[in-house]
Specification:
- Its EC number is 2.1.2.9.
- It is a single chain.
- By secondary structure, the protein is α/β, with parallel strands linked by helices.
- The chain is 24% helix and 27% strand.
Length: 315
């Protein structure tokens, strides 16, 4: 396959393996688009995106327009680069049709779900929250609709029952990089044609918010466990005890034994070195790792060294 002249558009860690894989495969990346540097950390100093850091390390030209929808000159500069194809991975900016049509072969996106399931901003976390047993990566031809384009290539992978949003993110980033390189020859040669999505099967992965992190103890234990796993490392599931916030980093759902009787959701029904067992709307949740406000995450056993929780109530 003749190396392609590529533009790459991406911003966070998820996009880094794809850019690295394109370079390692010998493709000519003639420019990298990433979001402008943003203030971050306690000092609020400007910080480069992970993609920009890699691009500069590899000597690539970097472009950081604030917008491509409202900046026709930026679009014209992009078109003048004469790319064969633009690869978009979690870029974070909307691309107008004028950009989608600028490269000779258009734009393709690496999306972290098995489309049309979980179109949108947070497909990894939504898949865990919903209890999906399988997810994957799609290499999709971009069009004006949100994640609605036909799919060139898809790779499925099971979701482990203990998988977190963080571990699945990292795994799909690597799968996506391999899938992208595998798909490029077919995209360049126009064969096979991309497969249209069935819109009737589409679901939408809304962007995550901190408001979703608060645990509703009336929910079933298995749903709360999925919430804990999906929101690790962000926004992290949390609850309230004695007016203070506790972040919950790890927990397991357990069935309720007849001997335990009924307890109001949120009530601590047991606490020992194996964890803190809490009544829920259906079953018990055993918290094994948590983080009091202002402290580092710790095991439930370490937390219990400093206080007793029998009969306490969360929420």
């Amino acid at each position: 396959m003749k190396p392609l002249r590529l533009l790459f558009a991406g911003t966070p860690d998820f996009a880094v393996p794809c850019l690295a894989a394109l370079l390692d495969a010998g493709h000519e990346v003639i420019g990298v688009y990433t979001q402008p540097d943003r203030p971050a950390g306690r000092g609020r100093k400007l910080q480069m995106s992970p993609v920009k850091t890699l691009a500069l390390d590899r000597g690539l030209a970097v472009h950081q327009p604030e917008s491509l929808k409202r900046d026709p000159e930026a679009v014209e500069r992009l078109r003048a680069l004469g790319a064969d194809l633009m690869v978009v991975v979690a870029y974070g900016l909307l691309l107008p049709v004028s950009v989608l049509e600028a490269p000779r072969l258009g734009c393709v996106n690496v999306h972290a779900s098995l489309l049309p399931r979980w179109r949108g901003a947070a497909p990894i976390q939504r898949a865990i929250l919903a209890g999906d047993t399988e997810t994957g990566v799609c290499i999709m031809q971009m069009e004006a609709g949100l994640d609605t384009g036909p799919v060139y290539h898809r790779v499925a992978t099971p979701i482990d029952p203990r998988e977190t949003g963080g571990t699945l993110h990292d795994r799909l980033a690597e799968i996506g990089a391999r899938a992208l390189v595998e798909a490029l020859p077919g995209i360049a040669e126009g064969s096979p044609a991309p497969e249209p999505q069935d819109d009737a099967l589409a679901t939408y992965a809304h962007k995550l918010s901190k408001d979703e992190a608060t645990i509703d103890w009336s929910a079933p234990a298995d749903a709360i466990e999925r919430q804990v796993r999906a929101f690790d490392p962000w926004p992290v599931a949390q609850t309230i005890l004695d007016g203070a916030t506790l972040r919950i980093w790890s927990a397991e759902a357990e069935s309720e034994s007849d001997a335990e009787g009924s307890a109001a959701p949120g009530t601590v029904v047991g606490a020992d070195r194996t964890g803190i067992r809490v009544a829920t709307g259906a079953g018990r949740l055993r918290i094994t790792r948590l983080q009091p406000a202002g402290k580092k995450p710790m095991s439930a056993a370490d937390y219990l060294n400093a206080r007793h929780l029998d009969g306490a109530r969360f929420g």
